[in-house]
Amino acid sequence: MHLYDTYTMKRGALLIDILGYSGEEDFYAMHRIIEEIVQPDDSGFSVDSMCVGGFFNKDGILVRTSSESPYDGLSFFYEPLKMSEEDVRKVEKWIDAVVSELHARLPR
User: Fold this and answer.
1) 8-state DSSP, 13
2) Residue by residue, what is the 3-state secondary structure of 77-100?
3) How far lies 43's CA from each of 5, 23, 35, 71, in Å?
4) Please, which pLDDT band fits residue 26 given cuts at 50, 70 and 90?
5) CB of 53 within 8 A of CB of 28?
6) What is the pTM of this model?
7) What is residue 105's three-state secondary structure?
8) What is the average pLDDT across 58-67?
9) Nearest-CA neighbor of 63 among 72, 71, 54, 55?
């Protein structure tokens, strides 16, 4: 099952768009799962009129999260070119685990 799309940005950053999920409630559910599964050293989010933006930091690795609007998907954003191969694998593992659990808890 295809759970997300990956987009490479101009400078090599990756945007992971989670298919079938959008808006604030899905974003909050995703962040609860991040707290439970990834158990980050630091995390947070903020809300403005256009989006909910957040982040988590684990083992010195920063991953940003977002839900741009009720019509756009949830996403992760990170910069693999600034990371070791081992750290990239960690982030990929975290994202896979969070997305799989999101689908298990809130099937679409």
Assistant:
1) -
2) EECHHHCCHHHHHHHHHHHHHHHH
3) 23, 19, 8, 24
4) very high
5) no
6) 0.92
7) helix
8) 96
9) 55
Q: Decide if 8 contacts 68 (C-beta within 8 A).
A: no
Report strand pairing: 73-78 vs 61-67. antiparallel
Residue 71: which pLDDT band, with cuts at 50, 70 and 90? low
Instruction: For residue 54, give both structure tokens.
Output: 């957040």
One-letter amino acid of 22: S
Measured distance CA(98)–CA(108) in Å, rounded: 15
| Cα four-point dihedral sign 83, 84, 88, 90 | negative
Among residues 18, 55, 23, 52, the alpha carbon closest in space to that of 38 is found at 55
